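YM 10:42: hydroxymethylpyrimidine kinase sequence, as discussed on the call
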Amino acid sequence: MSEKNNMLPNRPRPVVLTIAGSDSGGGAGIQADLKAFMALGCHGLSAIAALTAQNTRGVTAIHRPPRRFLRAQLDALFDDFPIQAVKIGMLGTVPVIETVAEVLAERAAVNIVLDPVMIASSGARLSERRALDALRRRLLPLADVLTPNLPEAEALLGRQINNEDAQSEAALALLSQVRGGVLLKGGHLPGDTLTDLFLQRDGQCHTWQHRRLPIEGHGTGCTLASAIAARLARGDSQLEAAGHAIAFLQRALGAAYRPGAGPLHVPDALRAMA
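YM 10:58: structure's back
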């Protein structure tokens, strides 16, 4: 058999980049993103914006690589790969936010999904308070899909969101700050039924409802945003990507497990596609 025939077949996959923090416990951040990309048939790239000492009990330390190293990661990836979507997670500082915004603008990046991570599931704050303004000014205008939970939306808007009417009003306020749509997750509202709301650029609103599961999730926002990015890379519209990603996350949560001694459950992204 010739060397050519011995080669594995070339099967191109959509390429998706995550720019986020690394979770040493493997449940959220870069690790969750790459699992979601793989489960949805994409090739995952990663640029690490922060390193955490973290497990299912909490975050004990955060280390941020130098700004020039983050820039080197991003340049290396954009120089080589045809990146079809970008998921942004934990960034944390003004220099990091500015670096990411500069590179994405220079490279004319498309299908940017922004998950404005500020507080970990354990309650640990992951972003400097002064970084919030930089996030609003530099990254929100680049977002094709913004995926905050309610505490993150409250921080971005400076207002309380304590019912579904306020959730709808908040989504509309955030829509004016992004170039695409807003998926405002409703998991922090009380009740057994949760409502996720997606507001499109044209003002059309779509909702999904699901029952609250008796688990403490970890990495759910990362998995959802990554799934949206993967579906956008595969050619879905923003609404289609949001709907498919929500269904994917629900399947992953149905197969969730507790990997550590702490209370947090991790969605099983790979079993979600089984």
